[in-house]
Each structure stands twice: as structure tokens, then as C-alpha cells.
Amino acid sequence: MDGSTQGNDDLAERVRAALCDRDLQAFGALLSDEVRWGSDGHPRACRNRTDVLATFSRLMNEGAEGEITEVATGTNGILCRLAVTWPTPSDHPEDRDIFHVYLVATGKIVEIRRYDDRASAAEVAGIGD
């Protein structure tokens, strides 16, 4: 990854703006062509920008809301804490906080990783104590 937080600060603000505005076109511009999201064995793993945007679109169409409660930059990328809520009734799990880490290389998001706890996410993003 890039190894410094300088370039990630501007990208973090652009991520925040795109997600707050629910603007998939703006978010897509921040992703590398071959961005990855999810493990290889997962049936809905994303392997490129189109896959990621389709997944975000599907979740939004299902009524998912993700209020951003934290954005922090590290040497490897950006940590984004989302308070996720679902409409009632829903087939999805309960409302909860999740953490996305957007790993960055050459100014673009190259991988999205999901965590259930901040400590794990912060470590992967390269955020020190």
C-alpha cells in the first residue's frame, strides 16, 4: 500500500462525501478497475468496480442505511465505521456497526475488507494508537 497517510486524507473525504450522498458514480470513481471485496470462496465476492457498485446498489435497493460515524486514515488505507440499519421487517441481521477498510494503492481503493470490530480494522488500515 502507499505507506503514508498524506494521500489518503483527501481520498477519505471523497469517500465520506460519496457515501453520505449515496452517490455510486462518485464512489466508483475512487475504485480501481480490479478492486476486490470479499473472500474468494464467497458466492457474492466482488472482483472489479462493476461488481462492487452492483453490490452497493443492491444493498441500497433493499433499504440498507449506513450512517458514517467515523472515517480515519492510516498508512494502508481508510477506516470507515458505518452504523447499518435495515427496514422493518427485513431478512437481514440486526442493525449494527460495521467497519470497512478501504485499502489504497496509487490513489485508488484496491480492496474493501469488512470487520466487526474497530481494533482489527484499525490494524489493517495502518492506524496507530
Structural commentary:
There is one protein chain. With 129 residues, the protein is of the alpha+beta class. The chain has one domain (6-125): Nuclear Transport Factor 2, Chain: A (Roll), CATH 3.10.450. The chain has helices at 6-20, 24-28, 49-61, 118-125; strands at residues 31-37, 65-73, 77-85, 96-105, 108-115. Strands 1-5-4-3-2 form a 5-stranded mixed sheet, sandwiched between helices.
Offer a quick outline of the entry:
By secondary structure, the protein is of the alpha+beta class. It has one domain (6-125): Nuclear Transport Factor 2, Chain: A, CATH 3.10.450.50. The chain contains 4 helices and 5 strands, in the order ααβαββββα.
Average pLDDT number: 89
Q: Shape, please? A: globular
| DSSP strand tally | 5
Could you state the order of secondary-structure elements as H and E? Answer: HHEHEEEEH
Low-confidence runs of at least 5 consecutive residues:
none
Q: Which CATH class?
A: Alpha Beta
Question: Could you list some keywords that capture this structure?
Answer:
single chain, 129 residues, alpha+beta, Nuclear Transport Factor 2, Chain: A, 33% strand
Question: Any chance you could write out the topology, listing elements then pairs?
Answer:
Elements: H1 6-20, H2 24-28, E1 31-37, H3 49-61, E2 65-73, E3 77-85, E4 96-105, E5 108-115, H4 118-125
Parallel strand pairs: 1-5
Antiparallel strand pairs: 2-3, 3-4, 4-5
